[in-house]
Each structure stands twice: as C-alpha cells, then as structure tokens.
Amino acid sequence: MSTPSQIPRIAILTVGAFIALNIAFYVMSGSYFESHHTVVEGVGSMPAYTADQAMRVRVWFAVFSGIVALFGLAAAVRPRTLGHLIPVLLGAGHLVGAFAAFTHSAPAVVGLTLLVSGILMPVLAWHSYHHRSRAAWAFLTAMCAVFAVVEIFGAPKVRGALDLSLWLTMILPGLNAVAVAALVSLRADYIDRDTVTA
Asked: 84-130: per-residue pLDDT in tens?
C-alpha cells in the first residue's frame, strides 16, 4: 500500500500519463484518418472517415484509457483491495458472458471457459485475500495475465459480434493488466505461504 505522501505523486504521474497518451493518440490517429481515402465513382477520392467518426474513436479511446488509469491509480494506492476486487468483478462479467454464450450460437468452449473462469476467479480472490493462500494468489495472477493477453487479441472479434467500439472492448484486458500489476506487487505477502491457512 502506498503511503499518504506518495499518493499525490502517483496521481500526478497517472494524470500526466493519461494526458500524454491521449495527445499522442490524437496526433497519430489524425495521420491515420488523413491517409485513408475511398474512391467514389464519379466523385473521386474522399476521406474514408468523417469528422464525427474520427471524434467518436478519440472519445472512446479517452474513455478506455481513463477507466484503466482510474483503476490503475486506485490499485497503486490500495493494491491488495483492488488486486482482488477486479478479478471478482471480471469473474461476475464472465458469468454473464457464459450465460450469453450458452443462449446464443457461440461455440461451447467459449461458454465453458467463461463459466469456469467466472466461478474460479472470485473463489481464488477470496482465498488469496482472506486466507493469504500463495497457491490461490499465484493461480489468480496467472489467470488475469492470460485473460489480459487473450482479450487483447479477441477484442476485434468481440467488437464485431456485439457492434461495440474497439476501445470499449479493450477495457477488459486493461483491467486484467491492472489486476496483474497489483497482485504482483503483493508477492512479498505470500512468501513461504504454501498452504491455505484457516
């Protein structure tokens, strides 16, 4: 846990990183939008993206980066609480996703994966938080890390299936990454804790 004197510095760094990242994205996305044109018969070359579409992408990126920055700031201040709370929230989301997968035409493996992870993540978080189980902490950290990577590459597919913004779907891997960072920062608490204590 951060000391009270460190919190303002962490907050300034987080806000500075958020602003710098959004300025960089604004500039780079502008170059991308300007370089893409479509050819319309009888009209010629026209921009592929309207100003409204470009602004929508930038707003969703700001939402994505803002949510991840807020959770990251909270996790830096209270790593034990947020490191275990985020997997519980994500596990609940996985259960909702499992229900949606089973009631729609998603492959069975998707529904089963979401169901098992939706049950495991809160259980592991409970044992890691309340019982200081090193095994639960390690397994939970690994699960969050795997989902962070898998969801980054799966975000475009989810976006297409649900007709959402890409940056909205990127919130999940971002939160998993924050959880991993918070849990890894607690590693000293789990040294020589190989069994679950009652």
From this structure: 999 999 999 999 988 888 888 878 888 899 999 999 999 999 999 99
Report the alpha-carbon distance of residue 22 to residue 18 in Å, rounded: 6
Q: Return d(Cα 87, Cα 116) in angstroms, integer.
A: 13
Q: How far apart are CA 114 and CA 164, in angstroms?
A: 20
- Listed by start position, the domains of the chain span 1-76, 78-198
Q: 184 burial class (0-12, 13-18, 19+ CB within 10 angstroms)?
A: middle
Three-state DSSP state, 162: helix
Decide: 175 and 64 in contact? Cβ < 8 Å.
no
Model's pTM, two decimal places?
0.84
* pLDDT at position 23 over 70: yes
Q: Rounded to whole angstroms, how far apart are CA atoms 174 and 101?
A: 22
